[in-house]
Design brief:
Layout lengths: L1 H19 L9 E5 L4 E10 L2 E6 L3 E6 L3 E5 L4 E5 L4 E7 L6 E6 L2 E6 L3 E6 L4 H4 E12 L2 E14 L2 E18 L2 E19 L3 H5 L1 E12 L4 E18 L2 E16 L20 H7 L5 E18 L5 E11 L7 E14 L2 E12 L12 E12 L1
Antiparallel strand pairs: 1-2, 1-5, 2-3, 2-10, 3-4, 6-7, 6-10, 7-8, 8-9, 11-12, 11-22, 12-13, 13-14, 14-15, 15-16, 16-17, 17-18, 18-19, 19-20, 20-21, 21-22
Length: 386
Amino acid sequence: MRATCRLTCCSLLLLALMQTSQVSAHSKTDVITVQNGDQLTGAVDSMTAGKLSLNTDYAGMIQIKWRDVHQIDSRYLYEVRLEDGERLYGRFSSSEVAGELIFSTHGKERTLVTIDVVEIRSIEEQLADKLDLSLSTQFQADPTALTLILQARGTYDVRNGRTGFNLRFDESKTKSTSDEGTIEQSTKSSNITLYREFWMQRGKKASQSYRVLNAIYSSNEALGVDQRGSLGFGLGRYFIEELGHELAMSAGIQGVREKRVSCDEQSDDAASFIAPGTFDTGLANTLGNANLVTCNDAELFLNLKWHLYHFSDRDMDISLVGNAYPSLTDSKRVRGDLNLMLNWELFNSFFWTINARVDLDTAGTQDDKSLEKSDYQLSTGITWTY
C-alpha cells in the first residue's frame, strides 16, 4: 500500500512538472520599472516573500526585490493582498509617481503604496501559470546511519482561494554492533497533505479570515502508524500580514480513519488492551493484516503558520508550521507535529535548507513498548523553487 501511494505521488509530481513546461498563455508584455529607472519586460507571475517573479524571454524566471519595484504596467488580471488584509482584483497600469501603483478594480482606479502590498497573485487559465512549486532533497550518510529525505511543496492559485500540497518521504537506516553481531534497523515515514483555503470577502476584517478544507495521509514506522487518513474542515485567520512577516492560525474538526489492532479507548492497563492510533508491529506481522481493524475517530485540529523573510544580498526565509490534534473519542490521546525550515539563498531559485521536524503521539507506546511517543529529525540540503 505504501509503495503504491509513493508511486502515485511521484506520478502526480511528474505530471505537475511536465505541465510547467508548457507554453504560458500569459504573454511576456508586462513592464516593470525598477528603482534606477530601468524597465524589464516579461510576464509577472507573483509577488511573495518580498520578491516579484518575472518570466522573461531573455533570462527565464527572474526574482526582483519588491522594495526595488516602482511601477507595474500589465493588461492581465491579478489578486493583490494589502497589509490590512484587504484583497483586490484588477489590473496594473503605469504611474507617474515612483513607489505608487495604479490599480484598476471594478471600473475604478485606485492608488496603492508599494510597501502596503504583501502579496500579488496572477489569476491565470493554465496550470503552468497557476502553480508555484518547491522541491527539496536531503541526504546524510556516515558509517552507522543513512538518511534520505524528499520534500515538495506547492500552491495552485485561483480567484478567491488557494489550493496547496505538502509531500514528505523519508527513510533512515542505522547500523549498530554488539557482542551478538551487527544489527540493522530501518524506519520510514511519509506525509501527504492537501488543503484548500477559501477567502472571506465581506469587509477588510473578514478578508483576513478564511475557511479551510484539508486531507492528510500519513505513516510513521517509529510511532507504529501504518495507514492514517483524515479529512477536516475549519476556520482560519491572519493575525499578522506585513511585507516580510506573516502569522496565521486555523482550527476545526476532522474525521480520522486508521488501521490498528483495537478500536477501544486507552486505559491505564497497557497490557490488557491496544491503544487507539498505534499497533504492535510485531504482533501485527504475527497475526497478519486480517487481524487489524479499521477504526474511525474524531478529533480537533489546531494549526499555526508563521513566516518571516529577511531581505539582504542573500535572503533568508524562515517558516514554522505546527499542528495539534486532541482526540474527541479518546480523552487521553493527543497527537501533534512541528516543522521548522530555514532557507538561505545561494543564487536564483536555489536555497540551502535546514529542516527540523518533530512528530508526537501520546498513545505511542501502548501497543508495543519498543515504540516511541515521539519521532524527530534534523536534516539539511538543497531546495529548488519554481
